[in-house]
Design brief:
This protein is mostly helical and about 500 residues long. Helices cover about 50% and strands about 10% of the residues. Helix 1 links the parallel strand 1 and strand 2. The structure holds one RNA strand of 75 nucleotides.
Length: about 500
RNA sequence: GGCCUUAUCGUCUAGCGGUUAGGACACCAGGUUUUCAUCCUGGUAACCGGAGUUCGAUUCUCCGUGGGGCUACCA
C-alpha cells in the first residue's frame, strides 16, 4: 500500500471544463496506477465567483465519468474539511499566516490598489519588469500597530527570501529554475481576510499530506512561490507533474470561443462517458504499445507519468466522434438501449415503444452503425416511427417501373403467407422472391425497401421488415400494389 | 516588455545517434453490402531554420523563429 496522496482541486467558478476534467482524469488514473488516495478539494476562496451550482455541476461531471474520489466534501475523510471556505472558518489559513508573520517570512501591507497601480505604471514606463517594491516591509511594528488600530485595510504579504534560484523538479519536464528576484513579494491573505490561491493551496496540500501534485501547465509559474511557502512553513514539498495544455484549433488554450467546453454539453450531445474518458487520456499521453482504444483497466496498467508529452494538444472533435462511434458499436443491444433511450424524441420513443420491447431494442440496435453520437439516433430511427400518411406520401414520390411492381407483388404474396416471423425467415423469403422473379438482387431489394419503408436507404432490409411487423408490411404492400395498379 | 516552456504528417502521436520516419483521426481511391453507414484494402501527407558535436543527426548542444503559459488582493 502506497502512502501517496493526490488531489484534484477545482474551483467552482464555472461548469466543469473539459480541460479541468482531463486533469481530474489523469489524477484518477495515476492514483489507481500507484495505489494512491485521491482527494477532492473545492477551492472556493473567490467568494465573488464561486457558486454552489458549479460545485454540483463538477460533481455530476465526475460521477458521469466514474471518477470516484476517496476523500472530499461529500465522501468525507480524516483530513477535512474539504472546502476552502470551511477551512478558512476554522482559522487554518490565519494560523499559518500568523506563523509566517512571527517567523518574519511575512508582513502587513497597507498599499492601496492605486499605490500598486502606480508602481506598476512606473515600472512599465522605465521598461523594467514589475515586482512589488516591498516598501511596507520597512514599516516599524508601531507603524503597523497604528495603521491597524486605524482600521486601514491591509493584506499579508510573503517576503521572498534572497537565495539561489528556486528549482522546480517536475516529473514530466525535468528541473526548472526561477530567479527569486523576479518573483516579488506576493499576497498571502487578501484584504477581505481570505487566503490567496497560492497560499491556500500550500496550506491545504501541506495539512492534507499531499505527496504528488498533478495539474495543468498553466500552474508552472506559481510553483516556485508555492515551494517557498512549503519550505517556510516546514512542510515537505510534494512532487510536481505539470500536464500539457488542451488547445483549441487555433492552438490557444481551449476556451468557450472554440465551441463546447463544458462536460455537460458533451453528455447532452450524446457522447459516451467511456469514449470521452479514452479520448481525453490520449491528449498528452500515449501507451507504450501504441494501443488507442483501451478500457480503464488497460489504461491504468499502462499509465506512467514519464509517457506524458510536453507540448499542448489540440482538441479534435472529429476524432472524439470517431471514437464515440467505436464505443457505440461495442455495446450490446441492452447497453445501447439504455444509452440511447434518453436521447429519443418523444414522438420516436412513443412509436418505438408501441412495437413492444423486443422490437424496440432491435430497432435501436439496427441503426448502431450509423451513429457517431447518440443524438443522431432520431433521424435514423425515423423509418420505424413513420405513420401511414407520411409513409404513403414518401412512396408516391417514387416512380416504380414494371419490374418493380413484379418484385413488390411477388414479395407481397410471400410475406402475406409467412407463418413464422423471424429475420432469417424473411431473409430466405426475399431470396425466394429473387429467384422466382428472375430479377437481380438490386431490382428486388430496392423497390421492396422503398415500398415497405418509404426510404431508399436504411437498416438491413430483413431486420427492417421484421421490426416493422408482418401486419404493417402486408398492409403497406397491399396499398402499394393498389396504388400502382390505379396509376397504370 | 519580462520570466518560463514547447516544436515530427492538417490533427493526436511513436521515435530515446544509423529506421523505406511507424500508428490513429481526417482526406482520397478501390472492395464488401440491396442502400446509407459499418467493415476491409491501398494511397497522399511530417522531422521549423541556422550553426556546432559526431564517421553519422529527427534524435545531443547553442542561437534564431514560430506556438503556448504566466506576469492580479482569479484560481
Amino acid at each position: 500500500m502506497s502512502e501517496s496522496r493526490l488531489r484534484f482541486a477545482p474551483s467552482p467558478t464555472g461548469n466543469l471544463h473539459i480541460g479541468t476534467l482531463r486533469t481530474a482524469l489523469f489524477n484518477w488514473i495515476y492514483a489507481k496506477a500507484i495505489g494512491a488516495t485521491l482527494v477532492l478539494r473545492i477551492e472556493d476562496t473567490d467568494l465573488a465567483r464561486s457558486q454552489v451550482e458549479f460545485e454540483t455541476n463538477i460533481n455530476q461531471g465526475l460521477d458521469w465519468l466514474g471518477l470516484t474520489m476517496d476523500e472530499g466534501p461529500s465522501q468525507g475523510g480524516g483530513w477535512g474539511p474539504y472546502r476552502q471556505t470551511e477551512r478558512n472558518e476554522l482559522g487554518f489559513y490565519k494560523a499559518h499566516a500568523d506563523r509566517l508573520l512571527q517567523l518574519g517570512y511575512a508582513y502587513h501591507c497597507f498599499c492601496t490598489e492605486a499605490d500598486l497601480d502606480q508602481e506598476r505604471a512606473t515600472a512599465e514606463a522605465e521598461k523594467r519588469p514589475y515586482v512589488y517594491s516591498g516598501r511596507c516591509k520597512a514599516l516599524s511594528p508601531s507603524d503597523v500597530q497604528d495603521k491597524r488600530v486605524a482600521q486601514i485595510p491591509f493584506t499579508v504579504k510573503f517576503s521572498v527570501p534572497t537565495g539561489p534560484p528556486v528549482r522546480v523538479k517536475d516529473v514530466i519536464r525535468g528541473d526548472i529554475d526561477f530567479d527569486r528576484s523576479l518573483i516579488g513579494d506576493f499576497v498571502l491573505v487578501k484584504s477581505d481576510q481570505t487566503p490567496s490561491y497560492n497560499f491556500a493551496v500550500v496550506v491545504d496540500d501541506g495539512m492534507m499530506g499531499i505527496t504528488d501534485v498533478v495539474r495543468g501547465e498553466d500552474h508552472i509559474s506559481n510553483t516556485p512561490k508555492q515551494i517557498l511557502l512549503f519550505e517556510s512553513l516546514g512542510y515537505v514539498v510534494p512532487k510536481f507533474a505539470h500536464l500539457p495544455m488542451i488547445l483549441g484549433p487555433d492552438k490557444s488554450k481551449l476556451s468557450k470561443r472554440h465551441g463546447a467546453t463544458g462536460v455537460t454539453e458533451y453528455r447532452a450531445q450524446g457522447f459516451l462517458a467511456d469514449a470521452v474518458f479514452n479520448y481525453l487520456m490520449l491528449l498528452g499521453w500515449s501507451s507504450a504499445d501504441g494501443k488507442e482504444l483501451m478500457t480503464r483497466d488497460e489504461i491504468i496498467h499502462r499509465f506512467t507519468l514519464e509517457r506524458v508529452s510536453k507540448s499542448g494538444a489540440v482538441f479534435d472533435v472529429a476524432k472524439l466522434r470517431w471514437m464515440n462511434g467505436q464505443y457505440i458499436r461495442r455495446q450490446t443491444p441492452t447497453e445501447l438501449l439504455t444509452h440511447v433511450r434518453p436521447y429519443l424524441s418523444d414522438r420516436v420513443r412513443v412509436a418505438l415503444e408501441a412495437l413492444g420491447f423486443d422490437r424496440f431494442q432491435a430497432a435501436i440496435y439496427s441503426v448502431r452503425d450509423n451513429l457517431d453520437v447518440l443524438t443522431d439516433c432520431n433521424s435514423f430511427l425515423e423509418v420505424y416511427a413513420m405513420d401511414a400518411d407520411s409513409w404513403i406520401a414518401q412512396v408516391r414520390g417514387y416512380s416504380f417501373g414494371a419490374t418493380d411492381l413484379t418484385a413488390i407483388s411477388t414479395f407481397h404474396a410471400h410475406v402475406r403467407g409467412m407463418t413464422e416471423w423471424t429475420v432469417t425467415g424473411i431473409e430466405s423469403m426475399i431470396a425466394t422472391v429473387v429467384t422466382e422473379t428472375g430479377l437481380g438482387k438490386g431490382k428486388v431489394f430496392k423497390p421492396i425497401r422503398i415500398a415497405t419503408s418509404g426510404q431508399p436507404s436504411g437498416p438491413h432490409l430483413a431486420e427492417l421488415i421484421w421490426i416493422l411487423g408482418q401486419s404493417v408490411v402486408v398492409q403497406r404492400m397491399a396499398d402499394v400494389v393498389a396504388l400502382l395498379n390505379s396509376v397504370n
